[in-house]
Each structure stands twice: as C-alpha cells, then as structure tokens.
Amino acid sequence: MNINTKNRNKWVDAQISSIEILTKNTRKFIIKFFNNFDFVPGQFIQIKLKDVIRSYSIASYSIDKNKLELIIVKVEDGQLTSILFNDTAVGDKIQVRGPKGKFVLPEDTQRDIFFICTGTGLAPFKSILDHLNIVQKFPRNLFLIFGTRTKKDLLFYEEILKIEQSQPHFNYIPVLSRQKWEGSSGYVHKEYMKIINNLKPKDPLFYLCGWKNMISEAKQNILDFGYDRKSIKLEVYG
Ligand SMILES: Cc1cc2nc3c(=O)[nH]c(=O)nc-3n(C[C@H](O)[C@H](O)[C@H](O)COP(=O)(O)OP(=O)(O)OC[C@H]3O[C@@H](n4cnc5c(N)ncnc54)[C@H](O)[C@@H]3O)c2cc1C
C-alpha cells in the first residue's frame, strides 16, 4: 500500500458515530466520514474540535473505508481529551485532517518485526494487525509487546489473542506493571530484551509507540544491543 499524500492537509467533515468505554480512562471513538477515507495502517489523523487540534493514531482497519476507530486516553486537564470525554456525544461533527505519518510496515518484508508499546500506543499496531489479519500475510516473525497496568487495562485482549492463536509467526506478549497474573509482569523492556537475547535476530525492525519515557529507554536499549538507528521507527505521543 502506498502512502497517500493527496489531500492530507485538507480538513474534512466527519462525525462521531460511537463512543465506547474501554477502561476507566480510555475510550474508543468511531469516526464516520461522508466519503471514503484512505490510509495505510500505522498512520495517524489530526482532529479539530472547538479549534483545538491533536493527533491520534488510527486504531482499526476494515474494508469499509468510510469509518475508523481511535483509542484515546484521558489526560488530566488535557485540552482536547477534556472536550472529547466531557463534552462530546454520538452524532457530533468533527473535522479531520490526514492521513499522516510513515509509521507503517514495509511491504512483503522478510525482517523480524517488534512492536513495542504501552497504553494507547497500541493503536497503530491494532490497525496494522487488523490489516494483516484481513490479507493473511504476516511477516516472518512478529512480536507485539504491550505494556499496561492491570488486566482491566488490556485493550483488545481477546481480539489479539484470537489473532495470535491463528498465526504461528505472531507472538503477543502483554505485560502488566501493577498486577501479578499468569502472563508477564513488570515492564516491557525485559520482554523484548529476552527475545533479542534468545533469537539474536540479524536484521530486525523495531516500532516503538507511546509516551516519551518508555520510548527513550527502549530506543537506548536497542542501540546498546548494537542495532542501527535506522532499524528503529518511533511514534512519540507526548
Ligand atoms: C502522532 C501522534 C499520535 C497520537 N496518537 C494517540 C492515540 O492514538 N491515543 C492517545 O490517547 N493519544 C495519542 N496521541 C497524543 C494526543 O495527540 C494528545 O497529545 C493527547 O490526547 C493529550 O491531548 P490534550 O489536548 O488532552 O492534552 P494537552 O492539553 O495537550 O496536554 C497536557 C499535558 O499533558 C502531557 N501529556 C499528554 N498526554 C499524556 C499522558 N498520557 N501522560 C502524561 N502526560 C501526558 C502533554 O505533554 C502536555 O504537557 C498522539 C500524539 C501524536 C503526536
């Protein structure tokens, strides 16, 4: 899929067609367009509400091209998330610009791929996974390492588990930082480091998404393994 640069700086009208509570502070917003909206999984859009503009990764992919999903965490006293969480209802109009960004998979890659994220940083990977699942073309080895606090915060847990069960080359590693459970506990870092130590991948690609502390630490760890800067792709939320 080619990255579409046509019209990406033009605002278009769209509508909030559904709002779903996913966790205590995270919601899924379905945005409906009046025309088809093309994007490559992994890209983001900008939304404008009451003159406040913010970026959000697209968190879905479907053959139905006139809608997409966003997963958004409420930031305390955050300008746009306060409007979205306190003052927005289904049916409201919003303006959208994009798609933007190059946080996308290379086509037909033979490289081992690591997706490393925390919280709503899962969004672009959810879109990429939805797409891979539709076209049934997974990379050689794909690892999704997703960090969050407790079991209740595991976004799209069942959906992703289901994909993992049907794809031998896809490994889903959810990690909880504030709860002991049957899966991994602690932080994401020890999980990808363990895989790198075991597998010693020759030419992997690392995709890091979320808030800047996790990203800087992961980037440094990967560089310390001796991998090149060009093997790391970043989507930094703030
Ligand atoms: C390319 C891109 C894609 C993004 N995609 C998503 C997404 O899919 N989902 C999503 O929830 N957010 C995403 N963000 C973040 C989003 O754009 C906003 O920054 C966020 O929603 C806060 O906006 P606000 O207006 O409510 O807060 P603001 O009023 O802009 O921010 C308040 C302050 O809080 C800080 N801050 C923002 N978020 C956090 C946080 N989670 N924890 C601690 N401090 C924080 C900011 O740096 C700022 O100093 C993305 C950002 C970028 C650049």
Based on the model shown, name its key terms.
238 residues; alpha/beta; Elongation Factor Tu (Ef-tu), domain 3; Rossmann fold; 6-stranded antiparallel sheet; 24% helix; globular; binds flavin-adenine dinucleotide
SSE layout:
Blueprint (H helix, E strand, L loop, with lengths): L10 E13 L2 E8 L10 E6 L2 E6 L9 E7 L5 H8 L6 E8 L12 E6 L4 H13 L6 E7 L8 H10 L3 E7 L7 E2 L2 H12 L5 E6 L1 H13 L7 E5 L2
Parallel strand pairs: 7-8, 7-11, 8-9, 9-10, 11-12
Antiparallel strand pairs: 1-2, 1-6, 2-5, 3-4, 3-6
The structure holds flavin-adenine dinucleotide.
Q: What would you say this structure looks like, in words?
A:
With 238 residues, the protein is α/β, with parallel strands linked by helices. It contains five helices and twelve strands. The radius of gyration is 18 Å and the shape is globular. Residues 44, 54-57, 70-73, 75, 78-81, 120, 123, 211, 235, 237-238 line the site of flavin-adenine dinucleotide.
Strand segment count: 12
Task: Report the bound ligands by name, code or SMILES.
Answer: flavin-adenine dinucleotide
CATH class wording of the largest domain: Alpha Beta
Strand order within the widest beta sheet: 4-3-6-1-2-5
Mean pLDDT: 95
Distance between the termini: 28 Å
Q: What's the helix count?
A: 5
Q: Main beta sheet, described?
A: 6 strands, antiparallel
Query: Runs with pLDDT <50, length 5+?
Result: none
CATH-derived topology of the largest domain: Rossmann fold
Radius of gyration: 18 Å
